[in-house]
Amino acid sequence: MKELPTPTLMLRTNSLAFRIGAIAAGWSLLGLLVGSYFLSSLFRQSVESAFDNRLLGDLESVIAVAELDCAGTVTMPVPLIAERYVNPFSGWYWQIISIENPPQAKPKQVMRSRSLWDQSLAVAPIEKQGELRLGYATGPKQQSLRYAQRVVSLPPAESDEGAPACKVGPRVRIAVAGDLADTEADIAEFDNTLVWSVSIMGAGLIGLMIMLVRLGLAPLNQVSQSLAAIREGRADHLEGPFPAEIQPLADELNALVAHNAEVVARARTHVANLAHFLKTPLSVIANEVQGATGPMAESVARQAQVMRRQVDHYLTRARTVASAKVIGARTEAAPMLGDLTRALSKIYAPRGIRIERACPEGLSFRGDRSDFEEMVGNLLDNACKWAEGEVTVTVTPGKTGRLTVTVGDDGPGLTEEQARRVVERGERLDETKPGSGLGLGIVKEIASLYGGTLTLGRSEAGGLAAVLDLPAVEKG
Q: 154: domain range?
C-alpha cells in the first residue's frame, strides 16, 4: 500500500494556501507601493507649493518696499529685516536689476540683499512687463536654488510735499531665491518614514494573510487528518464539526466510507457462501471414493484433492483482496498472537512443542484480523509441524509504518532452492505431513496484497525462519 504524506499546511508552490497567500500578498504589496508613490508625490507637491508661495510672498514684499529716486537710483526705504536675507550666503537672496533708465538716470545698476554679498543670481532674463517666472538656479556656494522673478515698473519716490519727485520710472527685474536643501531634506525624511511605515505595514499584512489562510484552510487540514485516521484504523468516520462549506464534503466522505464497508461485508459473505457450496460437493465426492480401488477411484480422489486445494487458494485470495481494500481496518498484534499461541500450544502439546512469543503492546497491523491470523497462523502451524520441540514468534516495529513478524523453529529447515520452490511454486516437499501444502504460498500472496513480503531463512535454532514485513498502524 502506498503511504500517504502526513497532512500539512506548508506553503508549497502547488498548494491552495500558497496560491491564495501569493495572490493576496501580491495585490496588497502592489497597492502599498502605488499608494506610497502617490503619497510621496502629493507630499512633494505640497512642500514645493508651500515653498513657492513663500518665495512669491517675499517677492511681493520686495516689490512693495522698493522705490526710485529722481536720479534713477533704486532705493528701499523700508528694508527687509528677515534674518535669512541678512546673513551672508544663507541661501535666501533677492536682487533688483534695472533694464531701462530715464534720460537723467545713472547707468544700469544692481541692488542685492546683504546675504548675496557681492555675488549675483544667475537667473534667466525676462523682458515683458508683469511677467512672472519660476525656475531653478545655482547659488554662490553651489546651492540648489528655487527662484521667483518678475518685471515691474517701480513707482517714483515722493517729495516732501507728498507729490512724486519724478514722473518716469524704470522697469526692473526683481528676483527672490531660496535654498532647496531644507525642502529636499523634509521630503527625504518623509520618504524614509514612508518606506519604513509601508515595510512594517506590508510585513504585518503578509503575516495577517498567512494567519488567515491557515485559519481559513484549517478545516481542510482537519479533513485530511481525519481521513488519515480512518485509513490507519484509528477512526471509522470523519469526526468533528465543519464549516458550512466543508460539511457537505465531510458527509459525502462518511457516506463513501460506510458504503465501502458495506460492499466489502457483502463480498465476504458471498465468498463464505461460495466456499460452503463448493466444499460440500467436494467432500461428498471425496467420501464416496474413499476406500474404493481402481484407476478411476484414484483419479477422482486425486482430482478432488486438487480441486479442494484450488478452491481454498482462490477463495482465500478473493476474501483477502476484499479485506485489503477495507478502509480503516486494523488489528492489534499482541492479543491476536496470544490467542493463536494458546490454541496451537494445546494442539501440539502431545508432541511437547513449546511456543515462545514476544510482542510489545501497541503494535497494530493495518489490515483485517482474519488475514493477519491466516498469515501468522499458517507460519506457526508450519513451524509446529516441523519443530523438534521449540517454536518462537516475535513481532517488532520495522521502518516507519511497518512491522516485522518472525517465526522460527528448531526443525530441519530448508535449503535456498527448497525455500524458493515452496514460496514461488507452492510445492509440497513432504507428503507425510498433514495439510494441503498451500500454507506458505497463501501467506506470501496475502502479504503481497497488503504491500508486504515473506522471506525464508535460517533461524538461530537451526531450523526455518519465516519473516513477514507488513504495514503497521502508526501511533497518533
A: 66-179
